[in-house]
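Our platform keeps sequence and structure together, in a single record for each protein. This encoding replaces a full spatial description with a residue-level series of whole-number codes. We quote a single record here, exactly as it is kept in our systems:
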Amino acid sequence: MDFGHERFAMHVILAQPRGFCAGVVRAIETVERSLERHGAPVYVRHEIVHNKAVVDGLRDKGAVFVEELAQVPAQAVTIFSAHGVAREVEADARARGLQVLDATCPLVAKVHIQGRQYAASGRAVILIGHAGHPEVVGTMGQIDGRVLLVQSERDADALDLPADTPVAYVTQTTLSVDDTRGVIAALQRRFSDIVGPDVRDICYATQNRQRAVRELCRQVDVLLVVGATNSSNSNRLREIGLECGIPSYLLADGSGLDPAWVAGASAVGITAGASAPEAMVDHVIDALRALGPVEVSTMDGLEEHIEFRLPSALRDAAA
């Protein structure tokens, strides 16, 4: 038989779960409901989530994104992003009479509470996370007293504290148990009196998406991760693909697809970071279809049904 002119379809397998988590859905809806209730403009401190398409879409509807509260007019409606903010930012907002709606992810707020409780009990607080990430900056500014940031096992070993110092650790939510296991083990070797959150307290979305990618990598030749370059969890998904031995690439949408990435691949896996909308996944699939026939399926996986309530002022408005 002559197969010379037959075009075989590329099999595209979608990770399950992927894309938006409950905290991101809540944050976006907070901005949209605020615009419906108050009209444009409403001001958002920092990108509401780390995704350009989402931010641009909200900007088109009337949201104004700023890096500092000094850029917000007095008494204006102001939204804090899903990453959370330091207490001094909250105090500044109150002093300027801003109408604040806090879109901080409830799981990030939980880390703030844990950190404050550990500090109040007299423990030195260690935060495992990435320096400069908005969530890390906010968390360090939410806990009374000194917070020590560690990013690696080397940082843990280098902490200038006596071995018998009572310490506690908390983690950036976009890091999973697997991401932090080595650092936590180093801290446990370093200190004789150490406590930290239970494994069940780690962000469900981070865990679920990373677990799904590891399973997906058993079925594909190439992994495409849809997400922003400044998205911590999206970058980590790509890194996991590489750790699994699969060529892995991060792209914002289909315009970022390099045909060379998938040349010769019979099965391509696609996942999306927690702040990447499904429309961007569809855009990548369309870009693959432009290269040739594509068959799309979704891997078996966990279906998430978690929802977070909106800020109370918006719930009252909805009621």
Observations:
- The domain at 107-201 is CATH 3.40.1010.20 (Cobalt-precorrin-4 Transmethylase; domain 1).
- Confidence is low (pLDDT under 50) at residues 1-6.
